Amino acid sequence: MSTLLYFHTFSRHVTDQNRLILRNGNHPCEGHVEIYHKNKRGYVGDKYWNEKTEEVVCRSTSCGEHKTSENVFRPTNDLVWLNEVSCNGTESHLWECDYPGWNISNYRKDTVKKITCSNDIKISLDGFKCAGAVQYTMNGQHSGYICANNWGKNKEGKDEAVALLCKNLGCGTGTIATEPFMVWKGFESQSSQNKIINCADIGQVDNLWQCVTEKTASCQSPVSVICTGHEKLQLSKTKEKNACSGNLEKKENGKWSPVKSTDGRDVWCSHMHCGSYASHTELENTIQLECTDKVTLDLMDNNESTAKKCYGAVHMKVNDTSHPVCATKDWTMENANVVCNELNCGHVVSIEKRATSTKGIMDYVSCTGKESSLWHCDAQHHQVSSSAFTCKDKAHVTCAGSVKVRLKDSPGPCAGRVEILYRGQWKSVAEDGWTETNSDVVCKEVGCGNKSILKPEKFSQGSEHKVLFLEEVRGESCSGTVGIEKGNKIYWLSGSTETWNQESANAVCQQMLCGKAKSFGSTPSADEMKDIWQESYNCLPNSTSLFACEKNTPQPPDHINTTATVKCTGRIEVNLTNKCWGNVNVCTDGICGGVCADAWTDEKSVMLCKNLECGNRVLPKLSTTTGPSQEVIFKSLHTTNQTTQLTQCNFVKYDKNDKTCSRNPAFVICSGSVKSRIKATRDKCSGNVEVQYANQWLPVCTDALKDNNVDNTICRELNCDSVKKTIGYFGPVPASGPVISQIQCPGSGDESLKNCTITSAPTVSCTLAGLQCSSWKKMALENSEKSCSGNVVIRSEGEMNSVSLEGWKKTEGNKLCQSLDCGNMVSISNKTYISNLPLSSSFSCAGTQNPESSIWDCEGQSSPSQKEHLYVECQDEPNVILSKGCHGEVRINNIQVCAAGWNDDYSHLVCQEKDCSNAIASMDSLEKAKPNKEYYHVSCEKHHYKLGQCRRFKAKCETNLVSVYCVRKSDPLPLPHSVNFSTSERCGGQIKVSYEGGRTWEDVCPTSLSTEFMDKLCKHIGCEGHNAKISKTKTSQQANLQTTLSFTENCKDIKHSVKRTGCKNVLPAEIYCKGYVIKDEAPSKVKILPIILGVGSLLVLVILLVVFARLYITRRAKKAMNAMTYSSRTSSRKDEFESGEYEDVLNKENEMEDGRGRFRSESEMIMESDARSNTSLNYDDIDEATEVQLLTSQAATGGGTSGNNYMQKDGVTYEVNDPQENYDDIEGPPEISQTTAEVHDGTQPTPESVTGPQLGLVQGDEDYLVPGQDG
């Protein structure tokens, strides 16, 4: 992997320019995609990634077409700028495609796409492999140069871009060549597409193509580079002293060595400015080269050659023409050394520059001092005098070969005044500055030796209480020196041969419950053992206690000379029934039993724990802890101040029939019985902490792990190194039972937990906790679209490794799948792999006997020999759904999820998994969990990208259940279950948001929205854009709202702006778009009472007028009928109609009466009046209008309906006005013009059924047509 560089340029500037690069590939057109946005590096997620996406990437990087792609690992915590990118393939840049915004879409996968494009781009140097102008080739063809623009240095002034280029070329490090001599043939003559680079904006690069911008330029000055690996050539001169003829040498590691290969011989001479290749001869260890030019060094003074005199102006004679060497830049001692050595003139005496205006052949000379000729030093060369440049200064040198010294004016050759021959003249030397060293040099020079030689770092007891004990030898019970404790003083039994015998020894062994004496003896009394017990005893063969024997008097003379020792036949053992915890168990003569707790003390417990190497502390007994059923056979045991082992005690047995303490045995829990574990099958050294306390695994409270010493002790005891952090407890919390409430450890965490003080609590009344140690490891399935299939990878601190296929069989696969809640293994293979992940150790469970062991118990310690990556497919793929598509209850295998511990990140995970984009943040879950039902509890980590990958367990839920609402991918049309927007009126009003496909709409909290957002919102609801001229037209009421719109400059899709964030007592947000019409509103203050009174008075007046009109019409009608009875009988009705002087009218009685012979109501008359007013419209504006009038059966008489515009339906006859008839010239009376169609309820008689004479129509005085009457 290429070294990453970071550029800090002096001219670095902030820019909004986006940059896309391909990183960590084998060539510039291969790698994973990274984007620099706002000078920050980020990745591109693979949601909706396809070939069209890759086409855009390859095009934007000038890399041609896409070829292949694969998944590679990325650091999980790194920024992902873009996700859900959808391209059509024609875009110039990835950010021109459709996507929700910058760093908007939640991306949790730890893999991204690595692509390979078609172009093969190589960056090299034009000139030499490791020196020259930076150029690039595309698919093997020279394409252009990299310009010198924007090549900046870092803070230290180093050209790190050059160092990267040189390293990638295999040329070491390097520098930018700013010297004029770095001008290679072809720079100015080449016409090509040149590139400008800018590495400052992208921060880190591993090849220069990543720095190439879109800009192209005609380079006035392509950047030139000299790498340390540049192969410099020279010719070591032969006798002819021609710099262009000799043995070919190259410079390696600062030294010149022979060239043995003929590769590149065509360019050797030109690179050394020696013309062209003439010939070469391959010798044993070198190559002898002959070039066409002849170049020699010369020194000139007064236009004469002074080379043999070793001083003068430096010249180069090229093909017999001498040219001066310029000294425009500093003329150095290294340059002069090369000159003096080349002329065999010794070392340099002095150098200088002299002004001149002549033409030169070399300038800007830079030698190291080891070149064979000045001609082979770095310099700007011109070989033809016509193209030579003007020298401002000429180089001069004086070599030691031109200097001689002598001593003058003295009686002998070794003393006198110093004179030096300098540049052809003898000169005296000034005394100022002369040193003894100078004198030494002169004396040596003239052959006169030196001028001088240098030297040289609980049992309460009475004052008469006596206790017998044996001071054990080498920890052996039932043997040792016989001692007696009385009070606080220790005495030793006399070993006198007169009193200490077999019977006495037997009595001691019997009293100590150690059987009989196997042997006995005595040892001399030392000063520290001078307290000899004053008594001696005369015991019988059956004596069981020394103190019960008869005392001897007087004592023998040697009573105090020795002490008694004995070795008994028996053996005593004191232990605990469960190694380091349990009932105290004492075994004597093969009989074992418990000790009564009444006489047991804490001191004995501590001593017993130490004796058993079970720690130095005793832990309290838990209420739930019981030892095994055990018979208590010892009343008590008695220690002395000398007791260090409980086996030294005096044991008191119960009589056979004494059962007073049979149910209360002494019980001890030693600190050494305590063990810790981190309970997690899929993880190693990370998980819930449990402590084994008296064979019970108890959870640990957070307070017990707040001390780093405690945490480090647990981690180190589990071979997990030191603690990293405390983590939350995950798993079913015990409903009852004890917990570890406090742990206190001494020291700095290096000790075992058995040295710690541990306190328990009877019930779970605290927050439980876990630990993650520094050597944690997590196993997961990655690089798959399933939760329970994929490549097996191991995550650890700062690393991610792939697992080798080596050693994996059914047993290993089942353990892994079961630890991931995925059932059993279905298959193992090398199906796919993540290319940039190294292989870690293999696994094998062979030899692992414990069926409850985890997969981590099978981890191998050596590197795998098999290099195939493991892919595992498990059986039980979890089914994760949202109950309503892109929103609703979260269910795993149809079981709902408890909201305890759930957060917005988990909601985003589910939405992304279901292709529904992000979740709406902070949505509340409203459904309550049922009290007696179990639900899933879930805990996810940052690298989990499917809910099925997260840890889970089933238990009761004390909170609500999880519901999630997703944004869903942006689409041209609103889709069900996605976020949608609307307004309270068309194109304006209060902003409304729906989360459930329009089922419910919510108002939005007021907020400051950008013009861009408002334009997008207006277009989303079908309007043209935001209308900034309208600010607020409606008066809203304050309300408590639950939704906020948060649209940042990074957001591109307005749906992702919706947040579930509430606000109180606010006016809902409003927006007004183009197309919104402001409606006229009535004045705010209207006097209602005068309007009501006016309308009422008008109605009364209308009613009175109608009544008077009816009375008047009735009277006139009666008069007319009485006067014209005869006339109406004899006149021909047919003639009246044919005359055209009358219009057909409705029966006026029918106008006032309904079909049942009753007068019509006032309201009916008013409605009819309103209807009539509608028929009085001007017909000029009506196209093909049809007027339908309801006619009575009497109106149908006189020729029937034939030939007229009549229509019958349901026994009712209608007259239909002819649409082609012109009504412009007809102006009927008001009564007629207001007549409308009537529908009569009663059955109208036909003309044939009418009895009596036929009625006629008579013209009245007032132009009224009145029904005919009989006189």
Helix content: 10-25%
- H/I helix tally: 17
**How many strands, which pairing sense, and closed or not: the largest β-sheet?**
9 strands, antiparallel
Secondary-structure content class: alpha+beta
What is the radius of gyration computed over CA atoms, rounded to a whole number of angstroms? 58 Å
**Hey, roughly how much beta strand do the residues contain?**
25-35%
Total count of strands:
77
Could you list the spans in which at least 5 consecutive residues all have pLDDT below 50? 1-15, 184-191, 452-462, 1125-1271
Average pLDDT, rounded to a whole number, is 79
- State the distance separating the first and last CA atoms: 128 Å
Shape: flat
In short:
The chain is an alpha+beta fold and 1271 residues long. It is 14% helix and 30% strand. The termini are far apart.
Please give a structural write-up.
The structure is a single chain. This protein has 1271 residues and is α+β, with helices and mostly antiparallel strands. 14% of the residues lie in helices and 30% in strands. It contains 17 helices and 77 strands. The strands form 21 sheets. Strands 48, 49, 50, 51, 54, 55, 56, 57 and 58 form a 9-stranded antiparallel sheet that branches. The longest helix has 36 residues, at 1088-1123.
